Amino acid sequence: MADELRTLTGSVTAPRGFRAGSTASGIKSDASIKDLALLIADAPCTAAATFTTSRTPAAPVLVCQEHLAAAGFQAQAVVVNSGNANCSTGAPGLQDARTMAQLVAERFGIDPALVMVSSTGIIGRRLPMDKVTAGIGHVEPVADGGDAFSDAILTTDTRAKKIAVEFTVDGKTVRLAGTTKGAGMIYPNMATMLCYITTDAAVEQRWLQENLRAAVNDSFNMICVDGDMSTNDTVIVMANGQAGNPPCDGTTAGSAAFAAALRHVTRYLAREIARDGEGMTKLMEVRVVNAATDADARKAARAVTLSPLWQCALAGQDPNWGRILAAIGASGADFQHDRVGISLGSVQMVRDGLATDFARDDAAAQMAGDEVIITVDLGAGTMGATAWGCDLTHGYIDENTLYTR
């Protein structure tokens, strides 16, 4: 499928009928940094979304859920602020999130229920609503504003994460684009991560929700930077139908192409989050094969990305496979110790649960680049899963000892 995708520029405004923009409203300590972004469609869109499963969700998550239910799972705009999570702020924080939606609705003449709200940043502080209000008034969404939107939603990220593709659905040219942010507090289970996806395809809502959930499960829900789930995690898809294709619903021609493109976009963006983990120097890709069940494969793969011991070994290029073995052993996956195999790149270090006669220098060399592949063979079945993570360095500690200063 990836060979049939044509890469475009423009981030979330690459599909027809979307505009975006951003401004520096002064929410962040550096008043010159853009920290408020707006994405708006020409007309109401079919919407689907997934959110954090944290028991301490932020106010904007709750407001998004309210609005989607009230609007019949339609959306027309997204307003995002960075620098403040608007979480654990009580009833006033909830009202602040609703006010953000109301301000956008009044400015553009749309129903407030069609406005989605997101926030990212420090927990426990009220939003400076005077600055938010002024910022919403200043943003001028434009057709080429996707990149500006992508930049303004960042917090500790070192770069914007975005992708736009074009493909064919039942003879119609369709565009699908997405942008995300996230570098720390990353352990999604729908994590701080936000993601917005736009498309000009026509898509039936229930089928879109089903496919989004499946795509998120195989992408964002398989990444880890530090094992901490965010209070604000949000993934929203907006489909406006301007491509003119028969609505994708799983039975129409081109539905499979759309589903595959959605998977491609979410997996690309998920890898980009792991690749930009706070302080990271290496992306790790963990491939678990021959698991008894899909759940076992996922447990084992994520356990390796979650292990701080292995993350540190990765940072130091120490092929200490015992860290990997310990992680999968504690993962809850069902397998037999004497059937396990572990490889670093092309070097197999463990076979049938025992060390092979591998050369340590050869294994270390597999860790020298900025991408490292770990393969774990559980020898228990035929199922597999892939997870992504990164190494743990002093840079991560430096970032998080000074975060609220």
Spans with pLDDT under 50 lasting ≥5 residues?
Answer: 184-191
Name given to the CATH homologous superfamily of the largest domain: L-amino peptidase D-ALA esterase/amidase
Taken as a percent bin, the fraction of beta residues is 25-35%
Query: Globular, elongated, flat, extended or rod-shaped: what is the shape?
Result: globular
Mean pLDDT value: 91
Blueprint of the fold:
Elements: E1 6-7, E2 18-23, E3 36-51, H1 59-70, E4 74-84, H2 90-108, E5 115-122, H3 129-138, H4 146-152, E6 161-169, E7 172-181, E8 194-199, H5 205-217, E9 234-239, H6 255-275, E10 283-291, H7 294-306, H8 308-315, H9 321-329, E11 341-344, E12 347-351, E13 354-355, H10 360-365, E14 371-377, E15 383-390, H11 394-401
Parallel strand pairs: 4-5, 8-9, 10-14
Antiparallel strand pairs: 1-6, 2-3, 3-4, 3-9, 6-7, 7-8, 10-15, 11-12, 11-14, 12-13
Can you walk through the features of this model?
By secondary structure, the protein is of the alpha+beta class. The protein folds into two domains: 2-275, L-amino peptidase D-ALA esterase/amidase (4-Layer Sandwich); 283-401, Roll (Ubiquitin-like (UB roll)). 31% of the residues lie in helices and 27% in strands. It has helices spanning 59-70, 90-108, 129-138, 146-152, 205-217, 255-275, 294-306, 308-315, 321-329, 360-365, 394-401; strands at residues 6-7, 18-23, 36-51, 74-84, 115-122, 161-169, 172-181, 194-199, 234-239, 283-291, 341-344, 347-351, 354-355, 371-377, 383-390. Strands 1, 2, 3, 4, 5, 6, 7, 8 and 9 form a nine-stranded mixed β-sheet that branches. It has a six-stranded mixed β-sheet with strand order 13-12-11-14-10-15. Helix 2 (90-108) links the parallel strand 4 (74-84) and strand 5. Helix 7 (294-306) crosses helix 9 (321-329). Mean pLDDT is 91; it is low at 184-191.
